[in-house]
Amino acid sequence: xxxxxxxxxxxxxxxxxxxxxxxxxxxxxGRLAYRLVDEIHLVPLNYAVEGRSILFxxxxxxxxxxxxxxxxxxxxxxxxxxxxxWSVLVRGHLRHLDExxxxxxxxxxxxxxxxxxxxxHVELTPTAVTGRRFLLRRS
Length: 139
Fold this sequence. Notes:
CATH class: Mainly Beta
Order of helices and strands: EHEEEEHEEHE
Shape: elongated
Number of domains: 1
Radius of gyration: 16 Å
Number of helices: 3
Largest sheet: 8 strands, antiparallel
Distance between the termini: 29 Å
Structural class: alpha+beta
């Protein structure tokens, strides 16, 4: 991962697309934001990366409805440490995968963290992926 140097004069740097995807592939949990009618939803979910897509399982409910409607969404992961932090934002749309495509998650050895039945598979297809790294001043 090529990383620009953070300094006092440059406390924030843009991440490259490759850096963003590397971080997305390493993380396991993010937050999905979507709109249904006149409500905005923000939910945590665990996910897997396949190529340039984000995949997750869900049960019947709002996330599945958003996928059926191919809703536009935002998805974020972030991390912070003692002196630095980073954030990656993915914008795109959801799609409910059909039975033929469901194998994509199985091959990734991906399992939902919450032990509830989640039979539906969803793909987030990005239209934009951006990220930033920050130098923190915590005192």
